[in-house]
């Protein structure tokens, strides 16, 4: 099968940072589905895994953690899907990724593709939808049924992939959303998705929120640079409020900043369930099916920002470079081989 892979961890400008390769197609066992990949999306995690470091892979390593495609075969323990089903998923960071013609993936982290979306638009959703959903509803404990309606959430990194879904989910739960955005295009994007106000993450967040009439906020979702925003998050979070970040820190974090407020700081990592084979892995299957239902009902929209063409090494190098530049809006997708 065709695939895009790496053997060395190189700067994205290097022509061998990502390579077109041929690999054998595997057979599904257990709970695995064999999926024919129709479209993929690219995420910051792809660039972080590929980032320059020592080491050479003995076998080409396939990256990619967002896909939509068609089930072509199923393992003997599969009960949720059958060949011919259209699916979408974010996969498992401990296994070969989706930048290939075929991929093996555990059915318990796979959802039925939204019927109203094509494969490219569907591929933009899984990783960001799972991350935003788990951060908002599982980690922060926001109740989907509306009991927290009227409370305020600050979303740092509002125009990115996760922020674009997080804004929509927060609005569906009845929260008032303030999103960070630093450019006219990103401000227009987050406002269209449902943010009631915007602030510039490159300036003083506390002062900007105060100018909007918010001395504090009930929740903070940090989808961009935990180190940069940590002190500001401690300033603006309400007493007994909750903060969730998805971005690993590079320097030690002073949790004492949250102590006087009895505030919660919690991490979200969407690969936790698949990495540790938790007993509730199937919750990601259920989550993705619920997201598909919201999309098909017209209450949640895909967040494609750019389509980079067919799936090959040259186009994926372009996508990685765009993400590393840090000015993308929404998701980058590719489709077909």
UniProtKB/TrEMBL annotation:
Record flagged with keyword Nucleus: no
Transmembrane annotation, as ranges: none
SUPFAM superfamilies: GroES-like, NAD(P)-binding Rossmann-fold domains
Superkingdom of this protein's organism: Bacteria
Name of a matching Pfam family: ADH_N
Domain Enoyl reductase (ER): 17-334
UniProt keyword annotations, A-Z: Metal-binding, Oxidoreductase, Zinc
GO molecular function: oxidoreductase activity; zinc ion binding
PROSITE patterns from the UniProt entry: QOR_ZETA_CRYSTAL
Family indicated by similarity: Belongs to the zinc-containing alcohol dehydrogenase family. Quinone oxidoreductase subfamily.
PANTHER family reported in the protein's UniProt record: PROTEIN AST1-RELATED
Protein name per UniProt: Zinc-type alcohol dehydrogenase-like protein
Source species of the chain: Chitiniphilus eburneus
């Amino acid at each position: 099968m065709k695939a895009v892979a790496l053997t060395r961890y190189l700067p994205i400008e290097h022509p061998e940072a990502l390579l077109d390769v041929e690999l054998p197609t595997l057979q599904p066992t257990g709970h695995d589905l064999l999926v024919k990949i129709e479209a993929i999306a690219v995420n910051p995690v792809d660039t972080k895994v590929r980032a320059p470091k020592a080491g050479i892979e003995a076998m080409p390593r396939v990256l990619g953690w967002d896909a939509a495609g068609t089930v072509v075969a199923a393992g003997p323990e599969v009960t949720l899907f059958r060949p011919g089903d259209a699916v979408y998923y974010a996969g498992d960071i401990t296994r070969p990724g989706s930048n290939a013609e075929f991929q093996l993936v555990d059915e318990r982290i796979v959802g039925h593709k939204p019927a109203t979306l094509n494969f490219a638009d569907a591929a933009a959703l899984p990783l960001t939808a799972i991350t935003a959903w788990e951060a908002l509803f599982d980690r922060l404990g926001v109740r989907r049924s509306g009991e927290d309606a009227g409370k305020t959430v600050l979303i740092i990194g509002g125009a990115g992939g996760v922020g674009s879904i997080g804004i929509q989910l927060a609005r569906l739960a009845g929260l008032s959303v303030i999103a960070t955005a630093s450019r006219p295009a990103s401000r227009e994007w987050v406002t269209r998705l449902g943010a009631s106000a915007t602030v510039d993450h490159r300036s003083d967040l506390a002062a900007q929120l105060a100018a909007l009439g918010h001395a504090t906020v009930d929740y903070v979702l940090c989808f961009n640079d935990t180190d940069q925003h940590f002190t500001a998050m401690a300033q603006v979070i309400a007493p007994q409020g909750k903060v969730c970040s998805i971005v690993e820190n590079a320097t030690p974090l002073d949790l004492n900043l949250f102590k006087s407020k009895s505030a919660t700081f919690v991490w979200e990592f969407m690969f936790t369930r698949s990495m540790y084979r938790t007993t509730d892995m199937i919750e990601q299957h259920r989550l993705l099916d619920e997201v598909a239902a919201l999309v098909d009902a017209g209450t949640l929209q895909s967040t494609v920002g750019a389509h980079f063409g067919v799936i090959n090494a040259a186009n994926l190098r372009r996508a990685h470079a765009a993400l590393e530049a840090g000015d993308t809006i929404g998701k980058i997708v590719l489709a077909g081989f």
